[in-house]
Amino acid sequence: MLKTPVYMDNHATTRVDSRVLDAMLPYFTEKFGNAASRNHSFGWEAEEAVDRGRNQIASLIGAKSKEIIFTSGATESDNLAIKGVVEFYKEKGNHIITCVTEHKAVLDSCRALERAGKATVTYLPVDKYGMVDPDAVRNAITDKTVLITIMWANNEIGTIHPIAEIGRIAKEKGVIFHCDAVQAIGKVPVDLEKAGVDLASITAHKIYGPKGIGAIYVRSKGPRVRLTPTMDGGGHERGMRSGTLNVPGIVGLGAACELAGKEMPVESERLLQLRTKLQAGIFERLDEVYVNGHPTERLPGNLNVSFAYVEGESLLMGINDIAVSSGSACTSATLEPSYVIRALGINEELAHSSIRFGLGRFNTEEEVDYVTDRVSKEVKRLRDMSPLYEMAKEGIDLKSVNWKQ
Amino acid sequence: MAYSEKVIEHYNNPRNVGSFAKDEANVGTGVVGAPECGDVMKLQLKISDAGVIEDARFKTFGCGSAIASSSYVTELVKGKHIDEAMTIKNTVIVKELNLPPVKIHCSVLAEDAIKAAITDWRKKKGEPVAAPDKAREA
């Protein structure tokens, strides 16, 4: 039996896998030690767990375990990478290259540095699929460039950037390359060493681990990357991130990484099939549906579509037993539609009509069928109510209408 | 954000959805909003020669609150004389539907739609048209 509500918003967060939770639980109670306690068994036990976690993460992403620095999550990792590099290398330069569809944690860190007069930032555009052009990255590099920060995969449209190419350019030009890899890790193969990534942000709650724990990968060799910490304290994590380690969280992140790595070959194929089915089902029943993001270079669990003539929030309201998200203005505090969708250059109306389906480990084929049916019916109902659909069917070009605002 | 019960009720059971033929002499059509803003309302009023609103239809592209606002005004204006309908303020809609501050623009749009539809009807009848109320903007 299908259980509602159906959760299909796995880019926002994921349910903790019970195997992850089981691994974590003892570290709240009998194994509660402080990993920094060097002189008793409670501390040793905690330290061992932390080391194991570090290894599990490192082996998933092609890193050495000492290159993993624990943080509270990806927002902190992004802040630390960007602000930490700019501060540390300020004698060398002050220019950052990023892209317009980055996560807010990256964009706002860059903006904060701009405002403080500590950096100048180039925000590269993306193509209609949401992909950044490596040549544009190359051309933007100046002798003042200290950091390139481009995400591995986009959280809204799932587009996977040509990270290895950007990594090669960064190496060639001697610029540090940070990558927010939150959505990609555990979903698609990520090898930071091979990709030439120098810093990477990681979080547990997108890969069926707990919230509040994440990590930053900091390359130790070729080049050794240095950071100025953003928090002062006991000098934990090789001085890069002070604060008592969140041992249960680290155990959870480690377990989540190990599971994701083990299951990825089968799971990514399964998700791709579910996504293909969802997309095909929707396209079969509805006309004028448009996919946002790259047709092939995208996360297997991501489907982002615009249902023309239907406003996204009203659609969400109609499918209130399904948890998905919308790029519609009305779901955000700002009343602006998603900046990611707008960056694709599609018309604004379609930006208001976009829905993100985020398939994950616990979604089933039955749920996909249910969602296809519910969404299609609701879109039809709302189109029958939509003056734009009516006008389009009458052959009126909506762009030619002089809208009274 | 939770919707009020009334918004949900109108969204699930919208009143008077549909269209009248635009070119009918006794039909006034108002289309307000813009697709890039995420809201477009089309309100049509069937108005008697005496100026009484006999029937109303709407179609709306917009969030649930926009749909509910337009659905509600179709009920609100029916039976009213156009002079009275012209005085309907958005605050009536806000109150009836319990719209939160972020959704007030939906009620403003619905108010504008009433005025636009009546103005259109007046134009068709060759009546003098008062300057449209430009004081409030969505």
Q: What's the SSE blueprint?
A:
The complex is a heterodimer of chains A (405) and B (138).
Chain A: E1 6-7, H1 18-24, H2 41-61, E2 68-71, H3 74-88, E3 95-99, H4 104-115, E4 120-124, H5 134-140, E5 145-149, H6 163-173, E6 176-180, H7 192-195, E7 199-203, E8 214-218, H8 247-285, E9 289-291, E10 302-307, H9 312-318, E11 322-323, E12 325-326, H10 339-343, H11 348-352, E13 354-358, H12 365-384, H13 387-393
Parallel strand pairs in A: 1-11, 3-4, 3-5, 5-6, 6-7
Antiparallel strand pairs in A: 2-8, 7-8, 9-10, 10-13, 12-13
Chain B: H1 5-12, E1 27-34, E2 39-47, E3 53-61, H2 64-77, H3 82-85, H4 90-97, H5 104-125
Antiparallel strand pairs in B: 1-2, 2-3
Helix pairs in contact in B: 1-2, 2-5, 4-5
Determine the structural class of chain B based on helices, strands and strand pairing. Answer: alpha+beta
- How many strands appear in the DSSP assignment of chain A? 13
Radius of gyration of chain B, whole Å: 14 Å
The biggest sheet of chain B, with number of strands, parallel, antiparallel or mixed sense and barrel status, is: 3 strands, antiparallel
If classified by CATH, what would the architecture of the largest domain in chain A be? 3-Layer(aba) Sandwich
Tell me, briefly, the overall form of chain A.
globular
Strand content of chain A: 5-15%
CATH fold name of chain B: Sufe protein. Chain: A
Instruction: Give the low-pLDDT segments of chain B.
Output: 134-138
Question: How many strands in all of chain B?
Answer: 3
Q: In the residues of chain A, how many domains can be counted?
A: 2
* Chain pair forming the biggest interface: A-B, 28 and 30 residues
Helix content of chain B: 40-55%
Helical/strand content category of chain A: alpha/beta
Oligomer: heterodimer
User: Compute the gyration radius of chain A: what is it?
Assistant: 22 Å
